Amino acid sequence: MVSPENHTLLRFGIITDIHFSTEDEPAAAAQTAADLRTALDGWKRNSVDFLLQLGDLIKGNDKCKEEEFRQVSSLFNSFPGTIRHVLGNHCLALPRQELMTVFGLQSPFYAFTMKGFRFIVLDGMDVSVLRQPETAEDCRTLAVFHAHPELHDYCGAVGVQQQLWLQRELEEAQLAGESVIVVCHFPLLPETTDQKHGLLWNHAEIAALIASFSNVEVCLSGHYHYGSYARYRGIHFVVLPAFVNREEHPNFTCGMVELLQRRMVIRNQRHEILYDLPFH
Questions:
Q1: What CATH number has the domain bearing residue 252?
Q2: The pTM is what?
Q3: Fewest beta carbons less than 10 Å away: which of 99, 124, 136, 246?
């Protein structure tokens, strides 16, 4: 008999940094499309509860971005289940509102609950060179970037209004007795990325906020193409490898996440365990 602690409550597919491109050789684009279809068929066969796409769906080439988005969206539309999208920096080669409309989002940051888990999805490009800051504090955050260009103009920050929303979501989850999974395209810890890729501009502030709640168990990110892991104040910070670099790290191209009562198990495309993460 399977004990309650070993019973899978939720199962979802996960993929990040596809960087779908049509500017390369047609054979390369066709192979990417074929590999994506294989992944989508696998998630369908395994009857996942939903699919989590962690951002950078397209490469965002100026001449090809609309066609890139059209083709990759068509592939994802073949999936019969729910898809939860995260906005990545490359995605924003297209207008934010256009992306949100196609993805069915009312807001680029949002939360949803399933079977005792609350997923909190952050918008890491809330404050960035691509947007006019909404508050004086956000203006100061953007000014810090301009003073420190090594932070990269393809990264961004969580704005003050989103931070207030995040605080409320964490408080509500705690009151409801829910375990929390935070999702952000960008890594939140310096040790889980490198200088070239960068991370969320105000990563220290956001990591400290989520770590102040004992029911936050895992933070899932992409962006750093080679993947990484660290633990901070009891929370697992997992950065998953990029689909676009799948030939360089064949141990994980995309995968499936199983949520049990007291742990998260992340499997690769061959159903091998990549991480087995106990909760608090």
A1: 3.60.21.10
A2: 0.96
A3: 136
